[in-house]
Amino acid sequence: MNKTFCIQNPMVCTTGNILTIGEKYMYKEGAYIAEVILKAVRNTEEFLYFDLYFCLQDKTIQVFMKHGNFGFSGMNRLWDHSRLELYKDEMIEWEERNKPNQPEPDFSAFQTTCAQYIATLTEEQIDKLIIHFNTLYICPELSVHEQRMTWLAWLLGEKQYIPDPDFEIIDMTVGGFKKEDFAITFESEDTGKIDFGFLKAFYRLDEMYENILKNDIAL
Questions:
Q1: Are strands 77-80 and 47-54 parallel, antiparallel or unpaired?
Q2: Which pairing describes strands 18-20 and 4-6: parallel, antiparallel, or unpaired?
Q3: 188: part of which helix (H) or strand (E)?
Q4: pTM (predicted TM-score)
Q5: What tens digit of pLDDT does each residue of 121-146 get?
Q6: Hey, is 63 helix, strand or coil?
Q7: Which end of the chain, N or C, is more open, meaning fewer C-beta atoms within 10 Å of its C-beta?
Q8: What angle do CA 130, 131, 135 make, to 5 degrees?
């Protein structure tokens, strides 16, 4: 008999907050919707981790959520499998938007590169950034990924990069970047496309800019 859990976490939206290893569920993260199979659960004091097998992509990915009584638009959630029927049209729409013919921002055109910008940050700003990322996941230092997210928050805040409002899914692989620099969990291995609205909400980029990066030294 497969192990069953009753988990109180904003990520778990199943009936009675019940999850069973080996069962199918609907996974929703921003505009992305997928059929998944729960492979494993790990519950720590701060975070809840799930190993999910994504049926369409034929791969297993670990997703996680910090414990707490909160929620935000676009956060990743697990729902009863029966809800997939309600979201069939949205799944089709997401696949259409994720086709490789969407506009691509050319980050290589910016005068200030990521490395140059990170070099301008003060020790106080770096300490605040680490605290910010630690509210999302365990982050002992600013790795390449956090540095890219910090740079993106600054580019958006300074309006050096303004995403096309008509497209939620964009390609972040241009300008010599690897898609992993901006990935969260569900990006396509072939195109590197991401749900930009969810990325902004998940990392709270606006808050990062306003509270930590605004009015810093510009090159």
A1: unpaired
A2: antiparallel
A3: none
A4: 0.48
A5: 999 999 999 999 988 888 888 887 78
A6: strand
A7: N
A8: 115
